[in-house]
Design brief:
alpha+beta, single chain, 395 residues, six-stranded antiparallel β-sheet, four-stranded parallel β-sheet, 24% strand
């Protein structure tokens, strides 16, 4: 794994926008616009290195599924902050019926510096983004700049194949809706959903686009409907489950949830059992189940334990995204007051520093297989909304 500088293409912004990345710039607090898509540098990997990372991702995914089963079978929902028994029962039922429910993708965030074993930082298996840039613009960038190279990127073909395999699990006779929130100002959620809709259409699935805020409830039929009052029997939503079950119509979501048993009226994708994998408490459950595993960092729910004096630790809200609420604590420092919300305490593993840039690998999973890589850089130890996306090649 190496970082290389390179001169960006003169028309790079227009090019990536035409390829679906309509958010190539990030607005900073000083009101300046700076590249989010950053092709002033790129990373290179060897093929054996990528093959080893693929094996790590495959193993981590299977470990996470084992942890989900452990949480359900040992009723550990409270550790995830899930205290509503109806929601817990729905998750448990969804998990046990998972073979009958469509489930498409997820993203592991990994600490990796090219030498030491990769370490799991977190797993977003419900609403992961940065998919468009990983699947499309970086592939076309490679074809233009390094036509003889390769890339860890089979995202598009794997997504299309996944929809083909899982089309039979969708309720027949109605389209699969793809929903995003209108409150997304950057366009990232919109384009992520649009890209996934495109892959489903290429698989032969009938689709419709809708905003989450435009999904209605028909009290006469007891079903969710679109703007034309057509029943929404299946819906891919880029909208976190913890919001969906607690919003104004959360009770209706729970009461009409189709877990694959044919008794409900709406099949949601990703399925509700993904709440088990997109919760930072998963990190502590994994460490409990697989202590000292080379690809895990020590993580706890009851406090930092030995990490406070040895390695330092990071406090992560159970449901935080893009670094929100994450705090870094150096070893031996003054112990802060306990946070107001339940958190996961994970060993501090400072992100690898490449020429002053802090790097995190986003390794994609489609169904149960490793499918691609996206790389983000940040200026500090926390990968937040100001991180940049850099392409990569296999040399």
């Amino acid at each position: 794994m190496r970082r290389h500088t390179i001169t960006p293409r003169p028309d790079w912004q227009q090019t990536v926008e035409e390829q679906g990345l309509v958010y190539p710039l990030t607005r900073y607090p000083d009101d300046s616009l700076r590249p989010y898509w950053d092709e002033s540098a790129y990373y290179s990997f060897s093929l054996p290195e990528v093959e080893a990372l693929e094996d790590v991702v495959a193993e981590l995914h299977q470990m996470c599924l084992a942890a989900a089963d452990f949480i359900v079978e040992h009723d550990r929902f409270a550790d995830l902050g899930i205290t509503d028994r109806q929601t817990a029962a729905l998750i448990a039922d969804s998990w046990r019926r998972r073979a009958d429910q469509p489930s498409v993708y997820g993203r592991f965030d990994l600490h990796y510096d090219g030498t030491a074993p990769a370490k799991l930082l977190e797993y977003n298996a419900d609403t992961p983004t940065s998919l468009v840039e990983a699947a499309s613009p970086q592939w076309f960038w490679m074809e233009e700049r390094f036509p003889e190279a390769d890339q860890w990127n089979s995202l598009h073909e794997r997504l299309v194949a996944a929809w083909k395999r899982q089309a039979s699990l969708l309720p027949p006779g109605s389209p699969l809706y793809f929903a995003h929130s209108v409150w997304d100002e950057s366009g990232e959620d919109l384009m992520t959903v649009a890209y996934l809709q495109e892959t489903a259409e290429q698989a032969g699935v009938q689709t419709e686009a809708i905003a989450v805020e435009d999904i209605g409830w028909d009290p006469m039929s007891g079903r969710f409907v679109d703007n034309q009052l057509a029943f929404i029997r299946s819906c891919f939503k880029l909208y976190p489950w913890e919001w969906l079950v607690t919003d104004e119509f959360g009770q209706q979501v729970r009461e009409t949830l189709d877990n694959g048993g044919g008794t409900g009226s709406t099949c949601w994708i990703e399925p509700v059992w993904k709440m088990l994998l997109s919760n930072k408490a998963l990190l502590a459950i994994l460490w409990e189940m697989f202590p000292d595993h080379p690809n895990l960092l020590p993580s706890y729910l009851d406090g930092p334990r030995e990490l406070a004096e040895t390695t330092g630790y990071v406090t992560k809200p159970l449901l935080g995204r893009e670094g929100a609420g994450v705090t870094v604590h150096e070893a031996g420092g003054t112990r802060p007051e306990d946070p107001d919300e339940t958190c996961c305490y994970q060993q501090l593993a400072p992100l690898p520093d490449f020429d002053g840039n802090r790097v995190v690998l986003g390794a994609w999973v489609v169904e149960d297989e490793a499918a691609g890589l996206g790389i983000r850089e940040s200026a500090g130890l926390i990968t937040d909304g100001y991180a940049r996306f850099l392409p990569h090649v296999i040399l």
